[in-house]
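Re: weekly structure request thread

Next one in the queue (69 aa):
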Amino acid sequence: MIIDVTGVELIPGNNGADCPGNGKRTDADGRPIECCCEECDYFLCCQPEHTREECRACRDRGCLRWERL
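Done, posted below.
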């Protein structure tokens, strides 16, 4: 699990669509969650150029997608 300094769980990959920190989501109280992308260590994983082969080569066990590949 990857947690941002703001406490938001980050989910890299899939062009950022699954990530609560993508700037398009709200918290349980309906407040917008600030975009965490610029500070995220996994920013490159969310880019369209990132390939599935790059995910398979990654050994970061903290990534939620690591075990699924």
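The longest strand covers residues 2-3. The chain has a mean pLDDT of 88.
Next request, please.
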